[in-house]
Amino acid sequence: MMQRHLSHFFISALLFIVTSFGTVLLITPQSLVSFVGPCAALLSGLLLVWRLVPLIVVVIISPILAFSFDYYLHLDANFTVMTIAVLAIVLQACWTKQLVFRFIHYKKWLSSRKYLFFFLLRIGPIASLVSASSVLVISILDSRVTQGDFLYTFISTWSASMLMAVFFIPLLLLFNNAEQLKLTKRFFIGFTSLLGGLAVFLLLKSSQYQQQQYRQVLFEQATLEIERLIMAEVNAVVTNVTSLAALFKANDTVSLTEFTQFSDNIFKQDSSVRALEWAPIVPLSERATFEKNSSTVLKKDFSIKDKLANGTMVVAPPRPQYAPLYYLYPQAINEAALGVDFYGEFKHSFPLQAFNNEEIMASAPVILAQDKVAIPAILFRQAIFSIPEKQSAAELIAQRKLSLITKEKLLGLVIAVVQFDRFFEQLAQEKSAKVNIFIQDITADEPITLFGQLLPSVNRHVDTLTLSVFSRLWQVNIAEKEPWFSQTKSWQAWAVLLGGTFGAVLFQMLLLMMAAYSSELGEQVHSKTRNLILAREKSEKKSLAQSYFLKTLNTELRVPLLAIRAFVEQLKERGIHNKEVTGISHASSNLALLLDTMLDVSNIESGKVTAKNDCFDFYRFLQRTESVLKASNEYEGRSIYFLIDDSVPHYLNSDQLYIQKLIYALIESAHQLLKTNKLRLSIKLHQHKPAEASLFFTLSEQNPVTTALSTNVYRRQTNNKLIIDSTAFSLATHYSQLLRGDTNLATLSSGAGVLNSSIRVNILSSTEQIAAQDTAFDLKS
């Protein structure tokens, strides 16, 4: 007993581990919800045949399984999720056993199609609701998402559990041979079921592969589109900066009106630029003059300022040169920044060489003084250098390349204040049905968030883009907005899932229905055989009782009959031959004949009499019979004519005694039923096999006249057969049945009656016919 329990323990553990890892690896995408349904069905089957051992296996193996999932497959198999999964598996197994206990205990799940249907219904669609419901909770905990469409997850888990139960549990029961089926039948059902299960698995697997490929393509398209749109927006900003820089480079001086008009044209375009600024280079020696002139031009007090850490504006201290914000567009909402020294405020936002480099540079995200909301802004700036007069293009390019050495005069900085938050929000809204984005500036050691927040990656496609944005590095994290389980599925996915599931269940049901139907037929045959045996025993008892009664009655009646016949003989010896004595003599003879007939019928019904199979000259037999009948009928005014067909051979194997009795009974019945004294007996042969044939006796009127059958004889119609209440006819029927034939009364289309009878005979071959003739000739000699 202990050894058997140990084998059950190790087999259950192996099956549980293989099923768990197999389903997680084969069902894509990988998730903890994949193994719950199939493992619940597996445990249900093992629990039905091995009782409590599989439950112990699940409790012991589950912690090891959770560690393996976490370590090898990197799935978050935490305590809560695994506890819910194990409870769901155990609950479904126990409920399944409760639902089908009677089917298994009384061994009737495969005894009929009705029981099989309810058995499969309980182990599959009904019991699988437990694991399917629990998986919804596991999906929410595993994906950390409480919103979305989880119907596909519910149906897919229900489908996996149902398919595993419908295919595995019957196979396990057949392997256990609880129904005592033949090995060939079990092998056929098992092999066919495995092939069907494999076909369904390949169908569902190919559908999963197609779905995941389509999902991957959509995600990659969204990723490429996001990269394209971000770079397009950045290039549009750079184009605006370049255009404004070209304005200042092409003119010796640019007035505030010209700057405003040019900037207004730029702002008419849909862009992320929040403000355009011009910061001229002011040496320390020219600071006072510049501040005085600027106050006149701007019509307000202007001074070069610095911004402290607490946001307070103070007069900028002396430094070799300044780059104050002089022109602002739009000025109305950016006046707070007017006069702020660009060198002092943003020296930490650009690389060290950025202020003396003519290339466009982007700053680290900064919070502007004029912002009421802390939205990070990116400063795109381009330095404007003076163009020396009377220089060739080659000399100009050479000096530009050596600007740090030749100290080309820096006139000022064109600055674009860019805030991408509105663009990023629009981008996120456009892709809201597919992906979420999280953007950071990772140029420095400490990343700076530009948009969004850290994205969840469980059960989602995730990708990371690194974009070079004018001396800055941006990292764009892209992830599916919803996990796979809550994503909306196409109608093709639903069609394959539902069609494959119900098709597989129907296939397995029809396969097992054949076995159940075979069991039904076997049970019906057994029941019919038992009923026939009982009926036969009852009939034999009844026949024996009837035979015993008739034999006893025959014996009892023969004693007084013998006494009567002896008394008649004494009267005749005394010379008394009057009418009464003659009547008594005829009555006793008729009674004796009736008793003989009754005894003969009783012996036939009880099986005490069997027909012989002797070879005899059938033609000679008919001649004798015809002669006897003509002699006896001549006194009564009757006639009989024998008509023998050429197909009837001379020699037959049968019992001529009972054939003779049959002919006598038929002729007597024909006189009564056909109500005629002139009969014709036609004899024909129909050969079934080379050595077996049927001999037909047909009695009809010699000169048929359309007359109704005798109304003096009682008859009734039952199932298109005429049943006649006649002693001679009954006797003929018994004789024909003894000779393996039948007797019936028919009516021709003309209305004339015909009495038919058939018997089975064995015929001799031509060689045997000749040998029989030679033997008969020798006996006559």
UniProtKB/TrEMBL annotation:
Q: Which residues form the CHASE domain?
A: 250-429
Q: Which GO terms describe its cellular component?
A: membrane
According to its UniProt record, where is this protein mainly located? membrane
Q: Which PROSITE patterns match?
A: CHASE
The source's domain of life comes to Bacteria
Q: Which UniProt keywords apply?
A: Kinase, Membrane, Phosphoprotein, Transferase, Transmembrane, Transmembrane helix
* Catalysed conversion reaction: ATP + protein L-histidine = ADP + protein N-phospho-L-histidine
Enzyme Commission identifier(s): 2.7.13.3
State the compartments where it is located. Membrane
Task: List the SUPFAM superfamilies hit by this protein, alphabetically.
Answer: Homodimeric domain of signal transducing histidine kinase
Alphabetized GO MF terms:
phosphorelay sensor kinase activity
Q: What is this protein called?
A: histidine kinase
Organism (species): Colwellia ponticola
